[in-house]
Amino acid sequence: MLTSKNYKFWFCTGSQDLYGDECLAHVAEHAKIIVGKLNESGLLPYEVVWKPTLITNELIRKTFNEANGDEECAGVITWMHTFSPAKSWIIGLQEYRKPLLHLHTQFNEEIPYDTIDMDFMNENQSAHGDREYGHIVSRMGIERKVIVGHWSDEVVQKRIGSWMRTAVGVIESSHIRVMRVADNMRNVAVTEGDKVEAQLKFGWEIDTYPVNEIAESVDAVSEADTKALVDEYYDKYDILLEGRAPEEFRRHVAVQAQIELGFERFLEAKNYHAIVTHFGDLGSLKQLPGLAIQRLMEKGYGFGAEGDWKVAAMVRLMKIMTEGMKDAKGTSMLEDYTYNFVKGKEGILQAHMLEICPTIAEGPISIKCQPLSMGDREDPARLVFTSKEGKGVATSLVDLGNRFRLIINDVDCKKNEKPMPKLPVATNFWEPQPNLYTGAEAWILAGGAHHTAFSYDLTAEQMGDWANAMGIEAVYIDKDTTIREFKKDLMLGNIFYK
Ligand code: MN
User: Of 143, 173, 203, which residue sits at a domain end?
Assistant: First the structure.
């Protein structure tokens, strides 16, 4: 399910014909070497493609428009090897619609003190030419990333790789389609939002289907298919009967297997990448989708509970942004549930009724069957686990009535201090940066939700850059956050985004 395109990034070098053909030959040769080494670095998730040096208005315009039209091109990387008069870039940049990276580098790493002359200076003047180019991009108010440093530096290569994932997020955002099989939970504010504005800003298509249409798809799943999937579950996960009769337990699990297959087929047939459910609106479904949704999230679908389509789309987006990442630690919807206020052990227990993605799990994953304590259906089967330690990013996209705001919080995930044998749900436990007190205060001041889209594998920089590219406000809660400064951020946002 988690298949995006075989994206590529174009490497476009700027120059001009003032310095002669030999210089231009060097420019092209140097750019090819850089592209080759970037691709060999193993640090870029997508391929960089060399393009002929851009030296005229016509070629710049043509190249940017070709980039717009090329479905595999997810962005353009620009670099001015020599001086490139920036008025030549205006029309091309005006017409360009994809992510833009300005790689402010130069071919040589060190000044060649013994041999440097004016020819060398004219050929290697990114420090000069990139300022001219940067000026026009700023004057035009175009959103772009600027990365500074020598192209052979791993730090620079990693930053390019990180930006590529943001760029793919920007491109893929407009392909996200969310299926709502229930409305938002009655009277809940924070999961609401303007779906038309979400399509305008993010490109998301958010549609509703009667829950019984998807329930019919579940009913249509054969017994044989269901049994095969239950067998797979029993192979893969620990079965925790906890006193239930094995046959009755297996019957409950089979309900989820049938839901997983029925939902997946329905989503595939109608080309949706994310789904929301609501425990109070289940139609003829026998159980709240628990295990089934957990497995769909693992396959790359976005999910939001209680009709939370913003979280569903964000989880899908973040899964796409981390696609193919080596040693990925996982991405999931989570919900702030309960605090630990003991000094030195502060944090927030993250969970949900059922629906946490097993990609974030550490250690064994078990199936349990327990009452839900909400709604009126039979006890749903769910996957239960604890989560990995380490840094992560928790995001909340909120609709403030006149605009969207993305709240981005760096969090430190920790082991649960003790087992919680009576808690029949998957959990994570984190301390928000800079600490629980300031982090939660800032989150609440920003209007952040209880549901979050969380990933171990993305950074605040990537999520903030994505928000900037979408033209929405991003606020950061991290190690440097103080409430006084954070309130100023919110005040600035209130003025700027009105
Ligand atoms: Mn919830």
Answer: 173
